[in-house]
Amino acid sequence: MGKNEFLTPKAIANRIKAKGLQKLRWYCQMCQKQCRDENGFKCHCMSESHQRQMQVFGMAPDRVVEGFSDEFLDTFLGLIRRAHRHSRVAATVVYNEYIADRHHVHMNSTKWATLTEFVKFLGREGYCKVEDTPKGWFMTYIDRDSEKAVKARLKRKRIKSDMAEDERQERMIARQIERAQKSLAKANDGDEGNVAEGESESESGSEEEYSGTDDDGEEQEEGSKEANKATGKIAIALQKSAPGPKVNPFEEKSKVNFGFDEEDSGARGKEGDEVANKKGKDVKAAEARRSALDELMKEEEKAKERSNRKDYWLCPGIVVKVMSKSLAQKGYYKQKGVVKKVIDKYVGEIEMLESKHVLRVDQDELETVIPQIGGLVRIVNGAYRGSNARLLSVDTEKFCAKVQVEKGLYDGKVLRSVEYEDICKISS
Questions:
Q1: Which three-class secondary structure string do you get for 37-66?
Q2: C-alpha–C-alpha distance, residues 384 and 381, integer Å
Q3: 400: number of CA atoms within 13 Å, CB side?
Q4: Crossing angle for the helix pair 115-125 and 91-98, nearest 10 degrees?
Q5: Are 423 and 377 in contact (CB under 8 A)?
């Protein structure tokens, strides 16, 4: 049996070495060949196949490097998207997971010389949110695909609600128009009856007034009545009187009213009534719209409150205060810690801020912590459970706070009265 046969120790050792990662300096990306030592890499560089690949590289080196860089970037971002989509993770952790595949594109074939340079590139281009800490570079993937999907879904939902609201408003306006027309018809019927009675009274009064005049006056009166019947207007006879004392025209205005003045004033009054009715209808319609929108918003808030109000509120990443008097002897009473893990929804693993000891405490023996104004909080219960918000103000009399939601579905929404128990400080 030869020394490099299938089951010899040497052959087994060679296969084990081939499975694991080798040194990066002895890897040829153009040929995708990994060498085990310097001598093997030297022999590979002298081979004919490698020389052909280098000739291809020499024709367009920039294009080849750019191709390897794009492939490295796509694969790296794909790994973050799958494994660390919503978490803050160290860059070295992701890189070690990436290079576990022996057929990956090596970084020495890209335009980035080091991992730090590559992480800075991700931050500049907006692929990830990067942070330089004493423990190294950390990054958080920016999920733009899900943001677009959420925005599109919210837009579709908003369009549907707007269409439904428009239909409700149209129905409401149609009902109001019908009611207004009925009331106007009743008012017009009453006005016509009053006008007919007034005309009959005026005619009888005029006959009585001019009954004692001369024959000429009676003829003129009959002629004027016939003319009035033909034209449909009321004429007023003016008699000449003795000239009185001179009056300054700028001190007093003429008190003589003509028939067309009365008609104009009546038309203006009707136009004013119509304008007032229209304004009243518009105001009522606007009030009805606002009331309908307010009712819808209240119903939606109540529905969210019912669905998201739970009897447990612990979640990882928040700062809590230990209120268990049984732990007072050990010095943990009224001390603050960070929730690292939640067990069975009601028990939390708390890492104390001062001693770094880890405790398991029930949520009944914990209390939420309110940060300073402007600090970040997490809404741990209620309609907006799970959202991060910025603390704007605190009302000590009502034991509630005013916060503004940051990120997520309700980005920018201001909540004016959130109870202390429903918000908690986020650990930095």
A1: CHHHHHHHHCCHHHHHHHHHHHHCHHHHHH
A2: 7
A3: 7
A4: 110
A5: yes
Please state, in angstroms and rounded to a whole number, the distance separating the CA atoms of residues 231 and 225. Answer: 10
C-beta separation of 378 from 368 below 8 A: no
In degrees rounded to 5, what are phi and psi of residue 29?
Answer: -70, -35
Query: Whole-angstrom Cα distance, residue 68 to residue 62?
Result: 10
pLDDT at 108 over 50: yes
Alpha-carbon span 21 to 104, nearest angstrom: 11
Q: pLDDT by residue (tens digit) across 314-345?
A: 999 999 999 888 888 888 888 999 999 998 88
Whether the CB-CB separation of 390 and 374 falls below 8 Å is answered with yes
Tokens of 109: 């074939």
pLDDT band at 17 (very low <50, low <70, confident <90, very high): low
DSSP 256: -
Query: What does each C-alpha distance from 113 to 102, 106, 107, 141 come to in angstroms?
Result: 19, 11, 7, 22
**Residues 4, 12: Cα–Cα separation, whole Å:** 9
Q: Which amino acid is at 312?
A: Y
Q: What secondary structure does DSSP assign to 96-127, as a single string?
A: HHHTTSTTSPPGGGSS-SSHHHHHHHHHHHTS
Q: Is 64 exposed, middle or buried (0-12, 13-18, 19+ CB in 10 A)?
A: middle
Which token pair is 324?
Answer: 């268990």
Q: Which residue in this structure is represented by tokens 């007032």?
A: 276
Q: How much is the pTM? A: 0.35
Report H helices in 309-366: none
Q: Which of 61-70, 120-129, 181-190, 355-364 has the lowest mean pLDDT?
A: 181-190
403 close to 358: Cβ distance less than 8 angstroms: no
Where is average pLDDT lowest: 18-27, 67-76, 119-128, 186-195?
18-27
Decide the pairing of beta strands 366-368 and 358-362: unpaired
Whole-number Å distance between alpha carbons of 350 and 336? 9
Tell me, what's the pLDDT at 47?
Answer: 85
Query: Is the distance from CB of 223 to CB of 237 less than 8 angstroms?
Result: no
Contact at 8 Å (CB) between 130 and 123? Answer: yes
Q: Distance between CA atoms of 141 and 122, rounded to whole angstroms? A: 10
- Answer left, alpha or beta for residue 345, where phi above 0 means left and psi between -120 and 50 means alpha: left
CB atoms within 10 A of CB 241: 6
